[in-house]
Amino acid sequence: QVQLVESGGGLVQTGGSLRLSCAASGSTFSLRTFEWYRQAPGKQREKVARIVSGGSTEYADSVKGRFTISRDNAKNTVYLQMNSLKPEDTAVYYCRRVLGDYWGQGTQVTVSS
Predict the structure, then answer these.
(1) Tens digits of per-residue pLDDT, 11-60?
(2) Which residues, 6 or more positions from 72, have their beta carbon under 8 angstroms from its beta carbon?
């Protein structure tokens, strides 16, 4: 069973930064594709970023140029660096391993105006 544990959320002012971490169990971390999603109150869950085993990345238009997804295969961890945060970035952020559709428990990000 794969476990994903997110951390790093919190309360930040508009324009601030946060770095989310997603620690994954399992021995095949380096081979897997991971994604970050978010869900704001009353809205559907949306994909924010994606990183494949080779390191290529994709981003939602709403975060392009502000967010950066990365991975450290030695630490079995995926990161989401979030800069220039806006109130509309407020949401619960989830990490997902695509193979097997595993999800973490989520971490709350709140951006105050």
Answers:
(1) 999 999 999 999 999 889 999 999 999 999 999 999 999 999 999 999 99
(2) 79
Instruction: Measure Cα distances from 20 to 35, 71, 79 in Å.
Output: 12, 11, 5
Distances (CA, A) of 16 to 10, 23, 60, 62, 95: 11, 23, 19, 16, 21
- Beta-carbon contacts of 83 under 8 Å, excluding residues fewer than 6 positions away, are 17, 66, 67, 68
pLDDT digits (tens, 9 = 90+) for 60-105: 999 999 999 999 999 999 999 999 999 999 999 999 999 999 999 9
Separation of alpha carbons 20 and 69, rounded Å: 9
Residues ≥6 apart with Cβ < 8 Å to 62: 88
